[in-house]
Amino acid sequence: MTQATTIRCSDVAAEPLPGSAKQATIYVIFEWTRAWSRDVLDGDTFGQELTAKLKAHLDEAGATLQLIRQPTREGRNIDNHHLYVVFAEHGTIEVLHVDGPEAILDLDLSAPLRCGGVERTRPLLLVCTHAKRDACCAIKGRPLVTELEQRFPSADNGDVIWETSHTKGHRFAPSTLLMPWGYSFGRMNVEATTAMVEAARNGEYFIPGNRGRGTLTSTSQVAEIAVAEELARTGRHVNYGQLHIIDEEVEPDAGTATVTVNDSRAGVAYRVLLNTRTVDGVISSCGKNPQPGEVWDVVSVHALGCENNEDRQ
User: Fold this and answer.
1) Which residues sit opposite 303 in a β-bridge?
2) Which residues have C-beta within 8 Å of that of residue 108, sequence separation ≥ 6?
3) Number of helices (H), then strands (E), in the chain
4) Is 280 exposed, middle or buried (0-12, 13-18, 19+ CB in 10 A)?
5) How many angstroms separate the CA atoms of 175 and 307, rounded?
6) Are 132 and 38 contacting, i.e. CB atoms less than 8 angstroms apart?
7) Which of 12, 71, 166, 180 could join 133 via S-S bond, C-beta 3.0 to 4.6 A?
8) Rounded to 5 degrees, what angle do the CA atoms 116, 122, 123 make?
9) What is the C-alpha separation between 53 and 55, in angstroms, rounded?
10) Where is the chain membrane-spanning (predicted)?
11) Where residue 311 falls among pLDDT bands split at 50, 70, 90?
């Protein structure tokens, strides 16, 4: 009798990556070396009383919580906890060293760099290894983060590489978040991820595996990546923060969208036309049945010329 083969959700590449990024603008990233429950704010990680206070504080600011830990056993022997506050729209990271999760309640999340910490200029790469959320994150995330730690050891690189809790989209595992810009990446091998980290050190936009920027809608995520691809195709340089969404018009009934993206370096705006498409066989999590899903496809990218557009993100 042949045993049925288990199909992991991340083994089925039914969807394109662009447009699937975790949406958030403010990230509170807290180092926690103890166990992570399936939902880190379900009360099992920090206890019901503290969790309720944390949720209220984060919800008031519209912030999302990521837990992190070092990949190595030595790195988890800590005297205090790293606490990063990221304002992705502004591209800022503030770092503090605190005694425990209660310190999150004291954060001023009303604007960037108001928490009394130190501004960090190096990027952070968070690799999801949250096995209790989905097995794919452990199966594919842990080997990646282990290899990256060897290539970018914390002692020499300032804690660039971290394991993290759920990043949305375990079907794209290994799934990563790149800070301070809030970009999600998926289906990345170690060579591609190494190249992405090296590029991020110089603020250079990385296209392979890019799921989009979480500060944007899914439609605008697709459009921004399409413009970055067009610029790269024609040999032009792109940095994070260079492209800005200045208009988005979606026609749900028609399944169409028009997004205008401004290249602030060149002063050129691009109009991106998109259509929706139904894809079959999307497995959202391991153990679930395949379902149809809706994705956005790029129809065209058209340069409008040099214009003084007022950027809006």
Assistant:
1) 270
2) 114, 115
3) 5, 14
4) exposed
5) 37
6) yes
7) 166
8) 105
9) 6
10) none
11) very low
Q: pTM value?
A: 0.92
Domain boundaries for CATH 3.40.30.10 within the chain? 17-215
Decide: residue 157, CB within 10 A, 0-12 exposed, 13-18 middle, 19+ buried. Answer: middle
CA distances from 134 to 65, 248, 300, 301, 307 (A): 18, 34, 36, 36, 46
Kindly state the average pLDDT of the residues 192-209: 97
What tokens were used for 309?
């557009």
* Number of CB atoms found within 10 A of residue 243's CB: 25
Task: For residue 275, give both structure tokens.
Answer: 């259509």
Q: What is the distance between the alpha carbons of residues 51 and 36, in angstroms, rounded to a whole number?
A: 13
C-alpha span between 109 and 213 (Å, rounded): 20
Among residues 80, 238, 90, 65, which one has the least CA distance to residue 159? 80
pLDDT for position 11: 67
Residue type, 271: R
Torsion of CA 85, 88, 91, 95, to 10 degrees: 10
Q: Which position has the higher pLDDT, 312 or 182?
A: 182
CB 264 within 8 A of CB 228: no
- DSSP for 228-272 reads HHHHHHTT---BTTSEEEEEEEEETTTTEEEEEEEETTTTEEEEE
299 in Cβ contact with 273 (< 8 Å): yes
Question: Distance between CA 280 and CA 271 in Å, rounded?
Answer: 29
The pLDDT of residue 32 is above 90: yes
pLDDT for residue 313 is more than 50: no
Q: Which CATH superfamily is domain 17-215 in?
A: Glutaredoxin (3.40.30.10)
